[in-house]
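Q: What does the assembled structure look like for these inputs?
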Amino acid sequence: MEKLKKFVKKNQVLLIAVCVCIAALTATFFAGGNLSDSKVQTASTASSISTTSADTETTSVSATEKITQSPTDSTKSNKDNKNKKDKKDNKNSEDKKNSKVSSQNSSSSSVEKSEKTEQVSGNSTSDKKKPSSSSNSSSKPNKKNDVQPTTQDKYKTDPVPSGKPKPVEPQEQETKDTNLYCTFTITCSTILNNIDDLDPEKIELVPKDGIIFKKQKIQFKEGESVFDVLKRVCMDNNIHMESSWTPMYNSAYIEGINNLYEFDCGSLSGWMYKVNEWFPNYGCSRYELKNGDDVVWCYTCDLGYDVGGGYATGE
Amino acid sequence: MKDTFSNMHPFINFIFFALTIGFTMFIMNPVCLAVSFSCALVTALYLNGKKAVRLSLVFLLPMILLIVLINPVFNHEGMTILTYFPWDNPLTLESIVYGIASAFLLSSTVLWFSSFNAVITSDKVVFLFGRIMPSLSLVISMALRFVPRFSAQMKLVRNAQHTIGRDIDEGTLFQRIRNAVKILSIMITWSLENAIETADSMKSRGHGLKGRTSYSLYKFDKRDAFMLCTILFTGLVLMILLFTNAIKFRYYPSIKGDLFTVQSIIFYIFYTFLMLIPLSVNVGEGLKWKHMQSKI
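A:
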């Protein structure tokens, strides 16, 4: 013990420096993509970053122009998406990179293609499980976009279609004591059509009808998000569920339910959710449930196209 | 201690370790892990003595504990949910078991490598690969020699610096850092220069030239041929059984596997036999020696 005390006394400065470094690193880690915004702003002298920001500035401007041109075209462009589906096979390699992000973040249909490709490149850098500060170059344009609310918000979410609920940040979430009800389903029936792609060790996990949790009325408190309800349903019914917090999208990402994980049934597979038959273009922690909502968690083997939510992945 | 196994032809030693370490690294069956770990431990203890004890207590034990603790914290796969972490992900039985298994896999690999270093010395490396890839074998043997030589030279340099009052535990913090950096720079200069010198002197002696023979004490005799056949036969049987999935065992999503079928028991027997070769050779030779002595 004496030796330790001596050592600490001798190396006080060094120890403090190390502690400060560790604290700074952890802070950046937890703040994730959000903190990196301000850091990039201050560090814009770095030549590589400043060139990328110059590039993205032009694209974001062109994107907003397009959007202001065609606000009424949203239904039409939805159809366009279905046409785009044919082209999709060519883009599979890109989609692979994008698929991790699919159920958290999705751009609405009216976004320019140039914007989209730029986003893909941004996502590929943040493809790791915990996108901390790796997304510097891609989060830069978002800061700019804060000024123009027609484009992505600060968690890379495109404008929500009219008539659909806006995202509610989990930090500002307020749960009240009022009891509300919603219906809840967890299904993986798409796997039944693609059973050959499934990891052979996991075949026994798929129920015969593909329904992991049968449609049921669930009680929840007012202000709770889809993620809160999913968590509780899984815990109460002893269903396995793993999630990871993703600061860049300010939401939890569902990696696997019932031991069926993302990428288990082909490289385009993963979990998605829909509320009242609509696949939200933002993460499940940001969706505040209302009374009578119908929540369905479904496993997709084809980036959402086989469950009817392909547009939510940013096509 | 007498080590007959390392007196065998280097090729035999190399084949044995290649097979053993290869099997150890890729087989996750719990029985095989137990066999490999215990054999690796006993062999390392026999070959390295005290050094092996230190290695396993100071390095391996903390490593095992660390892996066993870390795996369930970051891996939540598995059907048997025991409880929930504060961050709402499940703690599963499968992840705990998998952590234990992988910890033992890693530590038995490290132990086998410690025996590998005791048996296959750098001259054997040069002998084995000197013809096929001269420069690579030279680099390998130099790299293997580097750490012990570096630490010996470090002692010398530190002693020399100590005599002029510039050791790393003298003076204020900044002075000490300055001294340490100085010693490090001396060491780096020395090691770079030393490496070039060694390479140059090997070149001037004609290392790696065509048609050049090299003197070595190793002779491939009957005993070696017999041993080679034994090892290769055992390896072949194990390979065949491995590819027929005789010892299939899985950890995720649920722990499942038939540990004691006829095929798997045959596999375990051959596996144990292979891993006990160095020990049995050495012990058998010792007994023979004693027996002959008692006859005189």
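Chain B has two domains: 4-125+220-295, 130-204.
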